[in-house]
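Table S7 (text form). Paired inputs.
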Amino acid sequence: MRTPLAWKNLTHKWRRLLLALGGVGFAVLLMCMQLAFENALFNSTVALVHHFKADLIVTSAAKYTIVVREPFKRQRLFQARSCEGVASAVPFYIETQLALVTNRNTREGVPIRVLAFDPDDDVLDLPEPGLHRDELRLPFRALYDTRSKTSYGIETPSRGASPRGQALRLADDVVEIVGGFELGTDFANDGNLIVSAATYLALFPQRASGADGLDDVDVGLINVVTGANILDVQRQLKNVLPDDVKVQTKEEFEEQEHEFWAKSTPIGFIFWLGTLMGFVVGMVICYQILYADIADHLPEFATLKAMGYRNQYFVGVVLQEAVLLSFLGFLPGLVSAQLVCLVVAWKTHLDVSVIDPWIVAMVLGLSVVMCIISGALTIRKVMSADPAELFT
């Protein structure tokens, strides 16, 4: 039976092995956290879009991300309804406003995102707007996102209370909360409210335009008739509607959001730079570990050389050690990263997690490559083992 030399070398000193696993695990932790934060950014920014009950989305041609306010005229939705294959085309309004929070020692404004639509329109795949439809028709009634940050002072189920019956001061008025829903925060918004279009107009009269004040639309949601081809309807709408609006599928709109945050802002670059730094740190740590291990066993390697073992054998041993180190250090690093993510998710209300197939596969691959490169750099030390030195 062939002796597993690589395994024997690694486990020869358990204390050194544990230190080695800690070093590799730390690098894995760094890479996991960076990719998890980036994933949370992308998922949170498209969470609202993901909940839209729409086949196609209409926005202003100037709107490059859902965060910016670039409205279009509601007339475009009236025109869209006349297209063959269109079942419905309804407006959706978004406004970010300061909610006045009164604390024990101070009164401060905290931004909150207000989502508005006609309660009779089924625009979100969340159950709560439908369950509270009658209450939302009343003026100054709202649903509160229970995953909002705690800075608004609203008691939520996570804090042992229902938001129902509580009030929030918003835009010089007070809205009564009639229930809760779950959407989540993102990097631009700390919380969310759902109100009717009429309440939205009463809260933000400065947004009023047109005969009924609701002519400026942020997002148009279009559903096609059953059996119609979505792409065919999209092409028809592009031909019918003027160039001041664009028609996208949900997937295209989500991809636009991803592209904006990844390439048009420094955030995506910063996360990838952090991942690269974790990779470099891990490579240095792994190199030092393997180098010290080989230096300790240099006489043994020289003896094997004297016995006739070729260089290819030693290359294989070193690379096997590197791969074993990457796999052994990956699991504790992954577990540590997930524990940190749980704390971050609890404090920020963002969906931060490393238990994602893409993140796991990416970090595992980077860990293996990181250790193999370190092993390749230490091979020269093995090659320097000279059998003649054993007899001098």
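Next pair, protein 2 of 2.
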Amino acid sequence: MKTIAHLSDLHFGAEDATLAKHLAADVAAAEPTVVAISGDLTQRARTHEFTAAKAWLDTLPGAKVVVPGNHDVPLWNVLRRAFAPLSRFRQILESEPDPVWSDDGLLVLGVNTARSGTISGGRISPSQVACVRAQLETKGTGRLRVLVAHHPFAPTARHSIVAGGPSAIADFADAGLDLVLGGHHHVPFAGDLAEWHVGLASTVLVSHAATALSPRVRGHANGWTRITVQGHRVSFDVREFVAGKFRSATGASFRRTSTGWLRA
């Protein structure tokens, strides 16, 4: 069995320190194979915020796949925002904003959708799509193929799909993508992208994680999503922080069939 700990929107600089300790303990108890962080590790992309995020991540077990979010691009420093938007992210957290990690059962690809020219929205470029597709096709055989991005490929009332997302997800489905992990919403959700993307070549599952540590919970508790992969089954356990502890809030399970992923 493989376990993916999906965390998002940590927002160090506005985090609850006590909650951070509880979260680290709950993630560690899951013994994750890999921890996937889908962006917004900081509140305002300041050096001390990245340093705090790095120190906290170092306490977690498992491999790490970390991508930036729009909050990881400086807002007030116009020159840095224009010419070196991810310099602090690269220097402190992750040198490669489009990271790749794999083992015998998982292929996890990160893609940077944060852009210096926008305040909140993101974009995935044609060159990124081509690169992800090539890796799905060449490295994905026999593995569950996972994509990690900050901006969503499924909309909510507050946010639309990432720019370039509809054509990108069609390409990724054609290349065999199984699961996309995202954040930005601060709203937890696990399901099937077919609800928003009609006519995909294959089923693509989706996990949106709640904000892990930010007080901007938007009607939902702070939390994260534990994803377990066992044989031809993928299960989602949305963990919420309620009354001083983490608990399972909602869940969903899917099994792979000859026609795609079906809710189990």
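Residues 126-139 form the longest helix (14 residues).
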